[in-house]
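Good morning N.,

You mentioned wanting to compare the apo and holo forms, so I went ahead and generated the holo version with 2-acetamido-2-deoxy-beta-D-glucopyranose. This is what I fed in:
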Amino acid sequence: MASVMAIYMCCLFLVCLLTSQCVGAGSVAKMCIEVTANLTYNCGELGLNGIPESLPSTTKFLDFSFNFLPDLQNSTFSRLRDLVYLDLTRCEINWVHEDAFQNNDYLSTIVLTGNPLIFIADTAFEGPKALKHLTFTQTGLTSVTFIPTQNLGNLETLHLGSNHLSSIGLPSTFPTHNLKVLDLELNAIHHINKKDVASLKQATNLTLNLKGNNIWDIEDGAFHSMTFQSLNFGGINDVSIVLNGLQNSTIHTLWLGTFQDVDNLDISPAMLQGLCNMSVEVLNLQTHFFSDSAAIFQCFSGLQELDLTHSHWDSLPTGIEGMNQLKKLVLNQNQMDNLCQINAANFPSLTHLYVKGNFQKLDLGNGCLEKLKHLLHLDLSHSQVESVACCSSQLRNLAHLQHLNLSYNDPHSLQAEAFRECPQLELLDFAFTHLHTDASPSPFQNLHLLRVLNLSNCLVETSNPRLLVGLQGLWHLDLSGNSFPSGILPKDNLLQPLASLGVLILSSCGLTALEQQALGSLGKLQYLDLQYNNLTESGLAALSELKGTHLNLAANSIRIIPPGLLKAFSQQSIIDLSHNPLDCTCSNMDFLKWFRENLQKISDPEETTCGNPPPLRGAKLSTVTLSCALSGVGIFFVVFFVLMLIVMFIVIARRYVVRKYQNI
Ligand SMILES: *[C@@H]1O[C@H](CO)[C@@H](O)[C@H](O)[C@H]1NC(C)=O
Ligand SMILES: *[C@@H]1O[C@H](CO)[C@@H](O)[C@H](O)[C@H]1NC(C)=O
Ligand SMILES: *[C@@H]1O[C@H](CO)[C@@H](O)[C@H](O)[C@H]1NC(C)=O
Ligand SMILES: *[C@@H]1O[C@H](CO)[C@@H](O)[C@H](O)[C@H]1NC(C)=O
Ligand SMILES: *[C@@H]1O[C@H](CO)[C@@H](O)[C@H](O)[C@H]1NC(C)=O
Ligand SMILES: *[C@@H]1O[C@H](CO)[C@@H](O)[C@H](O)[C@H]1NC(C)=O
Ligand SMILES: *[C@@H]1O[C@H](CO)[C@@H](O)[C@H](O)[C@H]1NC(C)=O
Ligand SMILES: *[C@@H]1O[C@H](CO)[C@@H](O)[C@H](O)[C@H]1NC(C)=O
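and this is what came out, ligand included:
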């Protein structure tokens, strides 16, 4: 009997462990993380089996994922009357009973992802006045009829991904007039017929996601005169099935891209014929293989944007016609070896061109883009672009170019006035591209409209005071990761011409000191980033030239702040001194006092700690209090010492006098 009892107790204990049922809701409630007081709480992964009493009834946003709530009753959430958002991901929910949310008038989002649902009562979603977002991802659904339709008239998004649905159709009773997003990705939908599509007719401007469904056929005319905001058939093997099925439809964004691990047919012009009889503005065909023929583009003439990322082109065909509408062309991750291989003249209206992450070393060629009179944005980052005398001939005729991204490329030599052809440039990004810029006059001479210049980690010649001449409109300059001779920012530095500068990044520049007047010309500076340098208190006098600046001095070598520097700090708006070896002894007393009185100016006080003396190392500066006045014992010793000195003086003087008179 006893052994049976013992085994029973063991089992009970195991069950407890496995289901976490034994954990009392009240006791763990304290562990819910308060994200915003009285509003937002995160109770995820706490093994709770009920809503903790301690959760305030004013809670609006509740993450209750990864707990244990097998039945949702009308009482489960009744106390939380203000709930707006409720995440119940993986709570092992099987049953959702009548009126489970009856008290939750304001509830607009319910997430039920990953629950093995067995039953949902017809009135389960009664209560909320405007339920807008429902997520049933991975809930084992085999039919949409499982979801009760009562009180879903306001539904805007319905996520049904990763289930076993075989049709896109919604029941005729399903209210779709407000539906904006229907997500059916990764189900088992193989056939699409007229009737199913017709059930979505009320949802104008719908975003329909069918990614990862293996679609075998679409009934002829199924999408006739339907309009969609976006249709996603990602991972489709044969795009012609989709395009033939979409005859006479109007679709803003059509996603027909695929993935690297899917075996796909090469796309031939015939497979794209269907596009000629429908209206599409934005088309994505990423990761496909194409046959090399201008005819591929024959039905693309209505497109405004075309994404051919990673689609194995080493050149685009010549003789493409009728692409006058195309505004944006994405050719990232292809294998062109010369920019001229884009045959840019085929796309005369382009305003945005992206050739990012090219797999070959990309040569900029000579005037390859000169026919793109309207080009505003050009991104050539991560494309192993190299150039010996940049950039007048390379960027010929790009008179309206505003954004140019040449970051993460091979070394460039910039000519004098390198951007003569693009006087409208507003943003230039050269980050992590080594620049050789000994040219005179400055390579940026004519860029009066330039607002943002990223020269981070470019190994620029910082000792050339004329390097940035001409940039009188520059607002944001990133020079991080460039070094200065002897680690000193001199008085006559390259920042002098930048009268409009608002943001200056000088982090990780190996700086040990800023000379007096080094920052004198930067009257509009709002943010100065000097993180990760080797600045000490003696090298910071130049900061007194700034006013109202947000000063970031984190991770330097500052120990003691002398009174002069304290005055400079006082006139700034925000200061970050975290990760400095600050001295917490009486020699830094003025600063420690100032720090406590100016906490509202201090950024990251948690990481602003003492570096000295050793017993205080790591202590937060805001918590340190020193008494630097002399103590009673100290005063006693000082008085004693002074008295001793006087006594000794009298004794010695007396001896001297006595000896002197003895001699007489
Ligand atoms: C939270 O609610 C309590 C009790 O209603 C109230 O005392 C407190 O001020 C509230 N806190 C905030 C940040 O609103
Ligand atoms: C909640 O449901 C139970 C039956 O499950 C019922 O007896 C009770 O009246 C309901 N409470 C409210 C407030 O409707
Ligand atoms: C259609 O939906 C998109 C986003 O889903 C929105 O930006 C657009 O304004 C909508 N168009 C109409 C006509 O409602
Ligand atoms: C497309 O529309 C045209 C004209 O409205 C019609 O002749 C044609 O049959 C339609 N095609 C399909 C597949 O519905
Ligand atoms: C496009 O529609 C026309 C009639 O509207 C039809 O003759 C033609 O075959 C269709 N083309 C394709 C590729 O379906
Ligand atoms: C330039 O490209 C790089 C890499 O693709 C990217 O990280 C950066 O944000 C881009 N710059 C701008 C200003 O968008
Ligand atoms: C360069 O700086 C700009 C402005 O801060 C930023 O938008 C861009 O992302 C930076 N480039 C890189 C490669 O980080
Ligand atoms: C500058 O500081 C870094 C760490 O922040 C250190 O590794 C380096 O040795 C210092 N350089 C000099 C010259 O003090």
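The pocket of 2-acetamido-2-deoxy-beta-D-glucopyranose (ligand 3) is lined by residues 180, 205, 207, 229 (CB under 6 Å).

Happy to go through it together on a call whenever suits you.

Best,
F.
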